[in-house]
Design goal:
With 299 residues, the chain is an alpha/beta fold. It has 2 domains: 2-47, no CATH class; 66-298, P-loop containing nucleotide triphosphate hydrolases (Rossmann fold). Helix content is 46%, strand content 17%. It has helices at residues 2-17, 32-47, 49-64, 83-96, 113-117, 158-170, 190-198, 212-227, 246-254, 267-275, 284-298; strands spanning 68-75, 101-106, 133-135, 138-142, 177-184, 203-208, 232-240, 259-264. The longest helix is centred in the first third of the chain and has 16 residues, at 2-17. It starts with a helix and ends with a helix. Mean pLDDT is 84; it is low at 17-26. Bound molecules: adenosine-5'-triphosphate and magnesium ion. Magnesium ion (MG) binds at residues 83-84, 107, 110, 112, 183.
Length: 299
C-alpha cells in the first residue's frame, strides 16, 4: 500500500525541487518516515532558503551560547525610554549578587553601552572567536566595539542588518554565564525582528514610560514579541513618578504580564550615563529599585 504513495511523493518532489537524480540512490538508507522527512527537508530548503538559513544560523548561535543559562532581552517600543539604563543597571545588580553576567549591546543603530560603562577598548577582530571586553567582572560586547569610531553612524540596510547581527553573534564567545542581558534595538522593524528570530531568548522585559503614547507603542512591541513566541517576563516603568501610571497598568493587563518594578526619574541616571559608572554603584534609590527588579526576575 505504501509504495504508490511514496512514488507519487517522490515524483512531486522531483518536479517541485528539481531534485538531483543521484540523490535517489540514497533512499535505500532511509525508513519510510526517514524518507518522508528527508524529502520535506529538501523541499523546505529549496522553497524557503532564507527560512532555512535563519534556522541554521540560530542553531550555530545556540551552540556558541550553550554556556549561557539565561538570555534576557531588554526591549522597548521606541528609543530614549531607558533600555540601556535598565540593561546596565540590571547587569550590575545581578553581578553584585554573585551571578556570572554578560551584557550584549545588540542595538545596531545606537550602540551606547560602551559609553554607559566608560569602555574605550575595541574587541580584537584580528582572530575569531571574538572575545567580550571584561568590565567590573561583566563580559561586555557591542557592535560599537567593532568599529574605529563609535560616534560614526552605522548605516545598514535590511539584509545587511540581519547578516551583521548573525555574524556578530555567531562569532562571539561568551563562555559560562548565568545571565546574558541583551540591550535590543527599539521598534518593530528589521533589527529587533532579526534579533528575536536569531537569539533564543528566555524572555524579554519591556521598558516603558508613564505617558499614554509610550503605553500604546509598548503594546505594539509586546504583541510583536508574542507573535515571535518570545516570552514577556514583565514591564519596567522607567522615569516613573513612583505611582504606576494608568497607561502602564493597561499595558500590563493587555499583554497579560506583570510589573517587574519602577525606576524613578532621577538625575543620577544622567550623571551615570555621562560618567560611565552605572547609577546602582553610587545611588541608593537606584540600587534599591534594581535590586527589587532583579529579585522579581530571579523569581
Ligand atoms: N529614570 C531616569 N531618570 C533620569 N534620566 C534617565 C532615566 N532613565 C534614563 N535616563 C536618561 O535618558 C537618556 C536615555 O536613556 P537610555 O539611553 O537608557 O534610553 P534607550 O532606550 O536605551 O535609548 P536608545 O533607544 O536611544 O538606545 C539617557 O541620558 C539616560 O541617562
Ligand atoms: Mg540604548
Amino acid at each position: 500500500m505504501r509504495q504508490p504513495f511514496v512514488a507519487v511523493l517522490v515524483l512531486q518532489c522531483l518536479v517541485l525541487t528539481r531534485f538531483p537524480v543521484s540523490h535517489i540512490m540514497d533512499f535505500h538508507k532511509y525508513s519510510f518516515i526517514g524518507a518522508l522527512r528527508y524529502l520535506c527537508d529538501i523541499m523546505a530548503e529549496q522553497m524557503h532558503p532564507s527560512f532555512m538559513n535563519v534556522i541554521k544560523q540560530k542553531e550555530r548561535i545556540r551552540g556558541k551560547m550553550a554556556g549561557v543559562k539565561h538570555r534576557i532581552g531588554v526591549y522597548s517600543a521606541k528609543g530614549g525610554v531607558g533600555k540601556t539604563t535598565v540593561s546596565v543597571n540590571l547587569a550590575y545588580t545581578l553581578a553584585g549578587s554573585g551571578r556570572r553576567v554578560g551584557l550584549l549591546d545588540a542595538d545596531i543603530d545606537c550602540p551606547n553601552i560602551s559609553m554607559f560603562l566608560g569602555i574605550s577598548e575595541r574587541m580584537d577582530t584580528s582572530s575569531l572567536p571574538l572575545k567580550p571586553i571584561v568590565k567590573n567582572g561583566i563580559k561586555v560586547a557591542s557592535t560599537a566595539m567593532l568599529v574605529d569610531d563609535e560616534k560614526r553612524p552605522i548605516i545598514w540596510r535590511g539584509p545587511m542588518v540581519a547578516k551583521m547581527i548573525a555574524d556578530f553573534f555567531e562569532n562571539t564567545e561568551w563562555g559560562e554565564l548565568d545571565y546574558l542581558i541583551i540591550d535590543l534595538s527599539p521598534g518593530t522593524s528589521d533589527s529587533p525582528l532579526s534579533l528575536m528570530q536569531l537569539l533564543d531568548l528566555d524572555g524579554i522585559l519591556i521598558v516603558t514610560t508613564p505617558q499614554r503614547i509610550a503605553g500604546i507603542n509598548s503594546l505594539r512591541s509586546g504583541l510583536m514579541a508574542k507573535r515571535m513566541n518570545v516570552p514577556i517576563l514583565g514591564v519596567v516603568e522607567n522615569m516613573s513618578s513612583g505611582q504606576i501610571s494608568e497607561s502602564t497598568k493597561d499595558l500590563i493587563s493587555r499583554l497579560d504580564t506583570v510589573l517587574l518594578g519602577t525606576v524613578a526619574m532621577n538625575s543620577a541616571h544622567n550623571a551615570a550615563s555621562d560618567s560611565g559608572r552605572p547609577s546602582v554603584l553610587s545611588d541608593k534609590k537606584s540600587k534599591e529599585e534594581f535590586l527589587s527588579i532583579s529579585e522579581r526576575i530571579l523569581g
